[in-house]
Amino acid sequence: MTTNILEVTDLLHTYKDGGEAVKVLKGVNATFESGNMYAIVGESGSGKTTLISLIAALDKIQSGDITFDGKSIKEIGENEFRLKYVNIVFQSFNLIRYMTARENVEIALDFAGKSDGEKDTAYCLLERVGINRSESDRLVQKLSGGQQQRVAIARAMAGDVPIVVADEPTGNLDENTEMKILALFKKLADAGKIVIIVTHSKKVARHANAIVKRMERGLLE
Ligand SMILES: Nc1ncnc2c1ncn2[C@@H]1O[C@H](COP(=O)(O)OP(=O)(O)O)[C@@H](O)[C@H]1O
Ligand SMILES: [Mg+2]
Asked: Judging by DSSP bridges, how do beta strands 37-41 and 86-89 pair with one another?
């Protein structure tokens, strides 16, 4: 398996809040390699969401760079990057609530453009994250938060992209469910993806075999 490298260099980011400019990222440098799961921890307001949004190409880079295998997001283009390079797992962010879990995963399968022969079925992927048949056929809005999270991860498995990012994916889950969800993210990493998650719990991150990086007032350790 070849190694993919996501490199963040001298990333600066400032928000203009009214007339005042707030420096949020103050020169972030980091290297993320495929096959690993990274956990970004740090206090509220330290800039974690800002960093993950830039990595997901949801926001424009102001200064510094993010490259994938040596190619800048700016060069690849934000839209192209979001479509073909990165999968964003937010609790209900990319799930279509009025469709069933199975339909949500099928969309991702179709999108990955694999032929029927080489793709796992949606049911099979959902089963791997612990969603059974009857849950798979239920509307997403009728699943619990933890189940929706699992569906979002199954979607990430269906997608054929090298990077998976998640911002506090286990935010309102109990610790047991949280551990299970993180183990699923670890599976994605073991399958060769770059997995980057923001989590509030350093303890949980360690348990899940993640490489912990600490964000502190706009700088990453
Ligand atoms: N769109 C925005 N406009 C102005 N300030 C923002 C905006 N988004 C975030 N901030 C501020 O930037 C800082 C870092 O926010 P964020 O990246 O969300 O941190 P974290 O995810 O670690 O809590 C906070 O002080 C926050 O209030
Ligand atoms: Mg945040």
From this structure: unpaired
pLDDT at 192 over 70: yes
Q: Which residues pair with 198 in a beta bridge?
A: 40, 167
Q: What is the pLDDT of residues 136-150, one digit of tens each?
A: 999 999 998 888 888
Ligand 1 and 20: CB distance under 6 A: no
Q: Ligand 1 centroid vs 200 CA: distance in angstroms? A: 16
Q: Which amino acid would we find at residue 111?
A: F
Closest approach atom of ligand 1 to CA 167: 21
Ligand 1 site-directed mutation target among 12, 16, 22, most atoms within 8 Å of CB: 22
Residue 47: nearest ligand to its CA? 1
The span from the CA of 220 to the CA of 8, in Å, is 11
Task: Please tell me the distance from the alpha carbon of residue 188 to that of residue 158, in angstroms, as a whole number.
Answer: 11
80: left (phi over 0), alpha (psi -120 to 50) or beta: alpha
- Does 77 contact ligand 1 (Cβ within 6 A)? no
Tell me the C-alpha distance between 36 and 196, whole Å: 9
User: What pLDDT digit, counting tens, does each position of 201-210 carry?
Assistant: 777 777 778 9
